[in-house]
Amino acid sequence: MVPLQELLWFVSVLAVAGAVAGFLAGMFGIGGGAILVPVLYQAFTLLDTADSVRMHLSVGTSLAVIVPTSISSFRAHYKRKAPDLALLKSWIIPVPLGVIAASVIAAWVSGSVLRIIFAVIAVLVGLRMIFNRESWRLGTDLPKNPLRAICGFFIGLLSALMGVGGGVLNNTFMTTFGRTVHQAVATSSGVGMLISLPGLVGYLWAGWGNTDLPIYSTGYVNWIAVVLTIPITLFMAPLGAAAAHGLKSRQLETAFGVFMLIVAGRFIWSIV
Protein backbone atom coordinates (compact mmCIF):
# COMPACT_ATOMS: atom_id res chain seq x y z
CA MET A 1 0.00 0.00 0.00
CA VAL A 2 1.47 3.35 -1.09
CA PRO A 3 1.48 5.97 1.71
CA LEU A 4 -0.95 8.83 1.05
CA GLN A 5 1.75 11.48 1.37
CA GLU A 6 3.91 9.82 -1.31
CA LEU A 7 0.90 9.33 -3.57
CA LEU A 8 -0.05 13.01 -3.29
CA TRP A 9 3.54 14.00 -4.08
CA PHE A 10 3.50 11.65 -7.07
CA VAL A 11 0.30 13.27 -8.35
CA SER A 12 1.69 16.79 -7.81
CA VAL A 13 4.87 16.02 -9.74
CA LEU A 14 2.85 14.59 -12.62
CA ALA A 15 0.60 17.65 -12.70
CA VAL A 16 3.56 20.01 -13.04
CA ALA A 17 5.23 17.72 -15.58
CA GLY A 18 2.05 17.58 -17.64
CA ALA A 19 1.77 21.38 -17.76
CA VAL A 20 5.38 21.87 -18.82
CA ALA A 21 5.31 18.95 -21.26
CA GLY A 22 2.12 20.12 -22.93
CA PHE A 23 3.44 23.65 -23.40
CA LEU A 24 6.74 22.36 -24.80
CA ALA A 25 4.86 19.96 -27.08
CA GLY A 26 3.29 22.88 -28.84
CA MET A 27 6.35 25.14 -28.74
CA PHE A 28 9.00 22.65 -29.87
CA GLY A 29 6.90 19.96 -31.54
CA ILE A 30 8.52 17.40 -29.24
CA GLY A 31 5.40 15.76 -27.87
CA GLY A 32 6.56 16.61 -24.36
CA GLY A 33 8.49 13.36 -23.98
CA ALA A 34 11.86 15.02 -23.47
CA ILE A 35 10.59 16.50 -20.22
CA LEU A 36 8.14 13.74 -19.30
CA VAL A 37 10.69 10.90 -19.36
CA PRO A 38 13.12 12.33 -16.76
CA VAL A 39 10.27 13.59 -14.56
CA LEU A 40 8.41 10.28 -14.75
CA TYR A 41 11.65 8.50 -13.89
CA GLN A 42 11.95 10.52 -10.69
CA ALA A 43 8.24 10.10 -9.94
CA PHE A 44 8.42 6.31 -10.25
CA THR A 45 11.43 6.42 -7.94
CA LEU A 46 9.17 7.94 -5.25
CA LEU A 47 6.96 4.87 -5.50
CA ASP A 48 9.94 2.52 -5.11
CA THR A 49 9.46 1.10 -8.60
CA ALA A 50 12.09 -1.54 -9.38
CA ASP A 51 15.17 -0.07 -11.06
CA SER A 52 15.04 -2.80 -13.71
CA VAL A 53 11.79 -1.40 -15.16
CA ARG A 54 11.84 2.26 -14.08
CA MET A 55 13.32 3.72 -17.27
CA HIS A 56 11.31 1.40 -19.54
CA LEU A 57 8.13 2.40 -17.70
CA SER A 58 9.00 6.09 -18.06
CA VAL A 59 9.57 5.76 -21.80
CA GLY A 60 6.45 3.67 -22.44
CA THR A 61 4.20 5.91 -20.33
CA SER A 62 5.61 8.99 -22.06
CA LEU A 63 4.74 7.55 -25.48
CA ALA A 64 1.19 6.86 -24.28
CA VAL A 65 0.80 10.46 -23.14
CA ILE A 66 2.25 11.74 -26.43
CA VAL A 67 -0.55 10.12 -28.47
CA PRO A 68 -3.24 12.74 -27.70
CA THR A 69 -0.70 15.51 -27.09
CA SER A 70 0.84 15.18 -30.55
CA ILE A 71 -2.61 15.09 -32.16
CA SER A 72 -3.58 18.30 -30.36
CA SER A 73 -0.30 19.98 -31.26
CA PHE A 74 -0.58 18.91 -34.91
CA ARG A 75 -4.11 20.28 -35.19
CA ALA A 76 -2.94 23.64 -33.83
CA HIS A 77 -0.07 23.83 -36.33
CA TYR A 78 -2.20 22.47 -39.20
CA LYS A 79 -4.64 25.35 -38.80
CA ARG A 80 -1.71 27.65 -39.60
CA LYS A 81 -0.84 25.48 -42.65
CA ALA A 82 2.68 25.09 -41.23
CA PRO A 83 3.54 21.32 -41.43
CA ASP A 84 5.26 19.74 -44.44
CA LEU A 85 2.53 17.26 -45.36
CA ALA A 86 4.57 15.76 -48.22
CA LEU A 87 7.31 14.73 -45.80
CA LEU A 88 4.81 13.23 -43.37
CA LYS A 89 3.18 11.17 -46.14
CA SER A 90 6.56 9.84 -47.25
CA TRP A 91 7.29 8.69 -43.66
CA ILE A 92 4.04 6.81 -43.01
CA ILE A 93 5.90 3.49 -43.33
CA PRO A 94 9.60 4.19 -42.45
CA VAL A 95 8.97 5.93 -39.12
CA PRO A 96 6.65 3.25 -37.64
CA LEU A 97 9.09 0.55 -38.79
CA GLY A 98 11.80 2.28 -36.75
CA VAL A 99 9.46 2.38 -33.75
CA ILE A 100 8.76 -1.35 -34.04
CA ALA A 101 12.51 -2.04 -34.09
CA ALA A 102 12.90 0.13 -30.96
CA SER A 103 10.22 -1.87 -29.15
CA VAL A 104 12.09 -5.09 -29.82
CA ILE A 105 15.34 -3.55 -28.56
CA ALA A 106 13.63 -2.14 -25.44
CA ALA A 107 12.43 -5.63 -24.53
CA TRP A 108 16.06 -6.74 -24.12
CA VAL A 109 18.25 -3.81 -23.02
CA SER A 110 18.67 -2.45 -19.48
CA GLY A 111 17.35 0.84 -18.14
CA SER A 112 20.90 2.23 -17.96
CA VAL A 113 21.32 1.72 -21.70
CA LEU A 114 18.10 3.64 -22.39
CA ARG A 115 19.28 6.48 -20.14
CA ILE A 116 22.64 6.64 -21.93
CA ILE A 117 20.91 6.78 -25.33
CA PHE A 118 18.64 9.57 -24.11
CA ALA A 119 21.49 11.66 -22.67
CA VAL A 120 23.89 11.30 -25.61
CA ILE A 121 21.31 12.26 -28.24
CA ALA A 122 20.05 15.16 -26.11
CA VAL A 123 23.58 16.60 -25.75
CA LEU A 124 24.32 16.34 -29.48
CA VAL A 125 21.03 17.90 -30.51
CA GLY A 126 21.25 20.63 -27.86
CA LEU A 127 24.74 21.72 -28.89
CA ARG A 128 23.79 21.66 -32.54
CA MET A 129 20.80 23.95 -31.97
CA ILE A 130 22.67 26.41 -29.72
CA PHE A 131 25.73 26.78 -31.99
CA ASN A 132 23.81 26.40 -35.23
CA ARG A 133 25.47 28.02 -38.25
CA GLU A 134 24.52 28.32 -41.89
CA SER A 135 27.69 26.41 -42.81
CA TRP A 136 26.36 23.36 -40.95
CA ARG A 137 23.59 22.92 -43.46
CA LEU A 138 23.88 19.78 -45.61
CA GLY A 139 21.60 21.07 -48.35
CA THR A 140 18.92 23.54 -49.34
CA ASP A 141 16.12 20.96 -49.44
CA LEU A 142 15.25 17.61 -47.93
CA PRO A 143 16.91 14.51 -49.46
CA LYS A 144 14.99 12.19 -51.77
CA ASN A 145 14.36 8.48 -51.23
CA PRO A 146 15.90 6.16 -50.25
CA LEU A 147 17.92 8.48 -47.97
CA ARG A 148 14.76 10.23 -46.78
CA ALA A 149 13.18 6.90 -45.82
CA ILE A 150 16.35 5.80 -44.01
CA CYS A 151 16.38 9.04 -42.02
CA GLY A 152 12.72 8.50 -41.13
CA PHE A 153 13.47 4.97 -39.91
CA PHE A 154 16.24 6.12 -37.58
CA ILE A 155 14.20 9.07 -36.32
CA GLY A 156 11.47 6.58 -35.38
CA LEU A 157 13.98 4.13 -33.87
CA LEU A 158 15.92 6.57 -31.70
CA SER A 159 12.87 8.60 -30.68
CA ALA A 160 11.02 5.50 -29.49
CA LEU A 161 14.08 4.41 -27.49
CA MET A 162 14.11 7.87 -25.86
CA GLY A 163 10.34 8.04 -25.32
CA VAL A 164 10.00 11.28 -27.28
CA GLY A 165 7.68 12.27 -30.11
CA GLY A 166 10.30 12.74 -32.82
CA GLY A 167 10.72 16.51 -32.64
CA VAL A 168 14.11 16.16 -30.97
CA LEU A 169 15.55 14.56 -34.11
CA ASN A 170 13.19 15.81 -36.81
CA ASN A 171 13.81 19.46 -35.92
CA THR A 172 17.52 18.83 -36.40
CA PHE A 173 16.98 16.87 -39.62
CA MET A 174 14.79 19.49 -41.29
CA THR A 175 16.80 22.55 -40.27
CA THR A 176 20.02 20.83 -41.40
CA PHE A 177 18.51 20.62 -44.87
CA GLY A 178 17.48 24.24 -45.08
CA ARG A 179 13.95 24.25 -43.65
CA THR A 180 12.94 26.89 -41.11
CA VAL A 181 12.69 25.89 -37.48
CA HIS A 182 9.02 26.95 -37.47
CA GLN A 183 8.17 24.48 -40.25
CA ALA A 184 10.30 21.82 -38.56
CA VAL A 185 8.44 22.29 -35.28
CA ALA A 186 5.05 22.11 -36.98
CA THR A 187 6.00 18.99 -38.95
CA SER A 188 7.42 17.33 -35.84
CA SER A 189 4.00 17.39 -34.23
CA GLY A 190 2.84 15.13 -37.08
CA VAL A 191 5.88 12.89 -36.72
CA GLY A 192 4.84 12.51 -33.08
CA MET A 193 1.67 10.75 -34.19
CA LEU A 194 3.65 8.34 -36.39
CA ILE A 195 5.88 7.47 -33.42
CA SER A 196 3.58 7.49 -30.40
CA LEU A 197 0.81 5.22 -31.73
CA PRO A 198 2.98 2.22 -32.71
CA GLY A 199 5.29 3.05 -29.77
CA LEU A 200 2.44 2.65 -27.31
CA VAL A 201 1.59 -0.77 -28.71
CA GLY A 202 5.24 -1.79 -28.79
CA TYR A 203 5.96 -0.93 -25.15
CA LEU A 204 2.77 -2.64 -24.02
CA TRP A 205 4.11 -5.77 -25.70
CA ALA A 206 7.71 -5.35 -24.53
CA GLY A 207 6.77 -5.28 -20.83
CA TRP A 208 3.83 -7.66 -20.92
CA GLY A 209 3.79 -9.97 -17.90
CA ASN A 210 6.72 -8.32 -16.08
CA THR A 211 6.20 -8.92 -12.35
CA ASP A 212 8.25 -5.89 -11.24
CA LEU A 213 5.76 -3.36 -12.61
CA PRO A 214 3.80 -1.09 -10.20
CA ILE A 215 0.02 -1.18 -9.81
CA TYR A 216 -2.21 -0.17 -12.73
CA SER A 217 0.50 -0.90 -15.29
CA THR A 218 0.04 -2.80 -18.54
CA GLY A 219 3.38 -3.66 -20.04
CA TYR A 220 5.65 -0.63 -19.75
CA VAL A 221 2.73 1.82 -19.44
CA ASN A 222 1.40 3.10 -16.12
CA TRP A 223 -2.21 4.17 -16.55
CA ILE A 224 -2.35 6.32 -13.40
CA ALA A 225 0.36 8.54 -14.85
CA VAL A 226 -1.34 8.58 -18.27
CA VAL A 227 -4.76 9.56 -16.92
CA LEU A 228 -3.35 12.29 -14.68
CA THR A 229 -1.04 13.82 -17.27
CA ILE A 230 -3.06 13.81 -20.53
CA PRO A 231 -5.74 16.41 -19.64
CA ILE A 232 -3.13 18.96 -18.59
CA THR A 233 -0.92 18.41 -21.65
CA LEU A 234 -3.91 18.74 -23.98
CA PHE A 235 -4.79 22.09 -22.40
CA MET A 236 -1.24 23.44 -22.62
CA ALA A 237 -0.23 22.25 -26.14
CA PRO A 238 -2.15 24.95 -28.10
CA LEU A 239 -0.65 27.63 -25.85
CA GLY A 240 2.84 26.38 -26.67
CA ALA A 241 2.09 26.37 -30.40
CA ALA A 242 0.94 29.99 -30.21
CA ALA A 243 4.09 30.95 -28.32
CA ALA A 244 6.30 29.29 -30.96
CA HIS A 245 4.87 31.44 -33.74
CA GLY A 246 5.57 34.55 -31.67
CA LEU A 247 9.33 33.91 -31.49
CA LYS A 248 12.07 34.50 -34.04
CA SER A 249 13.71 31.41 -35.54
CA ARG A 250 17.04 31.93 -33.75
CA GLN A 251 15.32 32.45 -30.41
CA LEU A 252 13.38 29.22 -30.84
CA GLU A 253 16.51 27.28 -31.82
CA THR A 254 18.50 28.54 -28.82
CA ALA A 255 15.67 27.85 -26.38
CA PHE A 256 15.31 24.32 -27.73
CA GLY A 257 19.07 23.70 -27.44
CA VAL A 258 19.30 24.92 -23.84
CA PHE A 259 16.30 22.82 -22.92
CA MET A 260 17.90 19.66 -24.34
CA LEU A 261 21.18 20.23 -22.45
CA ILE A 262 19.27 20.60 -19.18
CA VAL A 263 17.42 17.34 -19.81
CA ALA A 264 20.68 15.56 -20.74
CA GLY A 265 22.32 16.82 -17.57
CA ARG A 266 19.59 15.29 -15.44
CA PHE A 267 20.12 11.86 -16.97
CA ILE A 268 23.91 12.00 -16.92
CA TRP A 269 23.62 12.79 -13.21
CA SER A 270 21.32 9.78 -12.67
CA ILE A 271 23.77 7.45 -14.47
CA VAL A 272 26.83 8.68 -12.58
Automatic annotation (TrEMBL):
Bilayer disposition of the protein: Multi-pass membrane protein
Organism superkingdom: Bacteria
Keywords assigned: Cell membrane, Membrane, Transmembrane, Transmembrane helix
UniProt-annotated location(s): Cell membrane; Membrane
Signal sequence interval, chain numbering: none
InterPro entries, per the entry: TM_pro_TauE-like (IPR002781)
UniProt key word Cell membrane: yes
Pfam families per record: TauE
PANTHER family named in the record: MEMBRANE TRANSPORTER PROTEIN HI_0806-RELATED
Name under which the protein is recorded: Probable membrane transporter protein
Gene source species: Hoeflea poritis
